[in-house]
Amino acid sequence: MIISYDKSDKAVLVLSGGLDSCVMLYYLVKRLDKKNIEAIFLNYNQINLGITRDYAQKQLEEMNKEIRIQYTFYEIQSFPWHKLGFYDEKLESHQLYSLEESLEIKKKTFVSGRNSLIALSAMSRADVSGVGEAWMSVQIDPPEWPNVQSFLVRGPKDITPQWVDRANLLGEVSFQNLVRLRTPFLDLRWGKEDIVELGTELGVPFNLTYSCRYHPVCGKCEQCLIRNRYIVDKGLADK
Ligand SMILES: [Zn+2]
Question: What residues pack around ion ligand 1 (CB closer than 5 A)?
Answer without folding.
Answer: 212, 218, 221, 224
